[in-house]
Design brief:
Elements (H helix, E strand, L loop, with lengths): L1 H4 L2 H13 L3 H10 L11 H8 L11 E3 L2 E3 L4 H20 L5 H10 L2 H13 L3 E5 L15 E4 L5 E10 L5 E9 L7 E7 L5 E5 L11 E10 L16 H33 L5 H30 L5 H25 L4 H4 L1 H14 L5 H13 L8 H6 L11
Helix pairs in contact: 2-5, 3-5, 5-8, 6-8, 8-9, 8-10, 8-12, 9-10, 10-12, 10-13
Keywords: FAD, Flavoprotein, Oxidoreductase
Cofactor: FAD
Protein name: Medium-chain specific acyl-CoA dehydrogenase, mitochondrial
Length: 406
C-alpha cells in the first residue's frame, strides 16, 4: 500500500533521508549525555536538511533536490517520509536540529508577508533554532485556562508576561511563537513572534529522561516587549487567529510526530534483527508480526498525512488516530526488544535503553493518547467521523485491528 501512496520522487526522498540518517545515531548518543554538544553536529546532512525544512522556496530556501523534484517539507506527507527515517537514526538528534519546526507551520497559517519575510529570512541567513510555546505549568494546552498575558503598552506595542513549560529548544532558540491571552475565552488567545534576545525572556532547561537532545525548557516572560507587527493573524478574523490556528497547526504536525514514533519502533525492531542472533519458532513469529504492524501503522500515518494535506482544517481525526497508534507502537516495540535480551537489557544495551526513553517521550509530544482519543470520539459524536468522506479513511484502519486509539 505504501508504494501506491508514495510517488517515485517521495520514494527517492525516503532513500536519501535513510542515507543521511546514519550519522544521527552517534549524534543522538552524545546529545543524550550532553545536550549542549549540539553545535558539533551542525554539518550532518540530516541536520542541514532540518535547518531548511518548512521554509518555502520563495523565501530563499534551497530545499532538497532529488529525482527531479525540490522538496521544502511544506506538506505533511513529505515530513512523514523525512522524519520517520531521521528518527530511525535518532529521534533526539532529529528534534535537536535547528529549523522552523512547529513555529514554521504556524507562520504558514497565521503570518502575513512581512512576518514571514522576517521569520524565514533569519532561518535562511543561518541555522537558527525556534520554539513553540503553548503549554503552561498549571494549565497544559487548555486554551480556556491560559494565563500568559498580552497587554497593550503605552507606545502602541504590547507587553508579554507569564510562564510556559516543556518547550523544545527554547534555551538555544533565536526566535519563536508564544500563545497568550488578550481577553477571556478562546477568541481572546493570540500568538506572537518573540525574539529571544529581547529583555524579559528567560529559558531554563529541564531535566528529561527521553529526547534529551531537544532541550525542553521552562520559559518566563517578564514585561517582554512585543512590537505590534509581531502579533500574528492581524489580517485575519478573530475566530481564525488564536486556538483555531493552533489546532490547524497540530493537525498538520501530528502525522510527522507519528512518523517519529514509527522511526523509533523500526530502530528497535532492526536492532533485534541485527544483535539478537537467529530468531526461530515463536520468537521469529512474534518479530515478524511486529514488522507487519509497523508497516500497517506507517500506511495509516501516510493516509493521515494525505488527508491533512487535502484539507488541514478537517483532517485532525485520522491524524489523532495515527499519532495515538504510532506512539503505542513505539512503546510496545522498544519494550519487546528489551525482552529479547533479558532483565538486564537496558543496562547492557544502551541503545535500547535510549529507545525506550525516547518512545515514552513521543507519547507526550503534541498531546498524549487521552487527548487524541478525545479528539477522535468528539468527532464521532459530532458526526464528523465515520460518515461521508471520512468513512473510507476509517475503513483503512482495519489493518491495525480497529480504531487505533481504542
Amino acid at each position: 500500500m505504501t508504494g501506491t501512496v508514495l510517488t517515485e520522487p517521495l520514494l527517492a526522498l525516503r532513500d536519501l533521508a535513510a542515507e543521511w540518517a546514519t550519522g544521527l545515531r552517534v549524534a543522538g548518543a552524545v546529545l543524550d549525555r550532553d545536550p549542549e554538544a549540539v553545535a558539533q553536529f551542525a554539518d550532518l546532512p540530516a541536520v542541514r536538511c532540518m535547518a531548511q525544512l518548512l521554509v518555502p522556496g520563495e523565501y530563499g530556501s534551497e530545499g532538497i533536490n532529488v529525482a527531479g523534484r525540490r522538496f521544502h517539507g511544506m506538506t505533511a506527507l513529505e515530513r512523514t517520509v523525512l522524519l520517520e527515517e531521521f528518527a530511525r537514526g535518532d529521534a533526539g538528534a532529529t528534534l535537536a536540529a535547528p529549523g522552523a519546526s512547529m513555529s514554521g507551520v504556524l507562520l504558514d497559517v497565521l503570518g502575513d508577508d512581512e512576518q514571514k519575510a522576517w521569520f524565514y529570512g533569519r532561518l535562511v541567513d543561518r541555522p537558527t533554532w525556534t520554539f513553540f510555546a503553548l503549554t503552561e505549568p498549571d494549565a497544559g494546552s487548555d486554551a480556556n485556562a491560559l494565563t500568559t498575558s498580552l497587554t497593550p503598552g503605552p507606545d502602541g506595542d504590547f507587553v508579554l508576561n507569564g510562564r510556559k513549560r516543556y518547550v523544545g529548544n527554547a534555551s538555544r532558540a533565536g526566535m519563536g511563537v508564544v500563545f497568550a491571552r488578550t481577553a477571556p475565552g478562546p477568541l481572546g488567545v493570540r500568538a506572537v513572534l518573540v525574539d529571544t534576545a529581547s529583555p524579559g525572556f528567560h529559558a531554563e532547561p529541564l531535566g528529561m529522561l527521553g529526547l534529551r537532545g531537544a532541550r525542553f525548557c521552562a520559559l518566563e516572560f517578564d514585561n517582554l516587549r512585543i512590537p505590534a507587527n509581531r502579533v500574528l493573524g492581524r489580517h485575519l478574523s478573530p475566530a481564525r487567529r488564536g486556538m483555531w490556528a493552533a489546532t490547524l497547526t497540530f493537525n498538520r504536525l501530528r502525522p510527522g510526530v507519528a512518523a517519529i514514533a514509527i522511526g523509533i519502533a523500526r530502530a528497535a525492531h532492526e536492532y533485534v534483527r541485527a544483535e539478537g542472533g537467529l530468531l526461530t519458532g515463536g520468537a521469529a513469529a512474534e518479530w515478524d508480526q511486529l514488522g507487519y504492524r509497523i508497516e500497517s501503522v506507517r500506511n495509516l500515518v501516510h493516509l493521515a498525512a494525505m488527508e491533512v494535506d487535502a484539507d488541514g482544517s478537517r483532517g485532525g481525526h485520522l491524524a489523532s488516530s495515527a499519532k495515538a497508534e504510532a506512539s503505542r507502537l513505539a512503546e510496545d516495540a522498544t519494550r519487546a526488544a528489551c525482552r529479547f535480551f533479558g532483565p538486564s537489557a537496558r543496562w547492557t544495551h544502551p541503545l535500547l535503553d535510549k529507545l525506550v526513553r525516547d518512545a515514552r517521550g513521543v507519547e507526550f509530544m503534541e498531546g498524549a493518547a487521552n487527548i487524541q482519543k478525545l479528539i477522535v470520539f468528539t468527532g464521532l459524536l459530532a458526526g464528523k467521523v465515520g460518515q461521508g468522506e471520512s468513512f473510507p479513511a476509517l475503513n483503512a484502519l482495519s489493518g491495525t485491528g480497529g480504531l487505533p486509539c481504542g
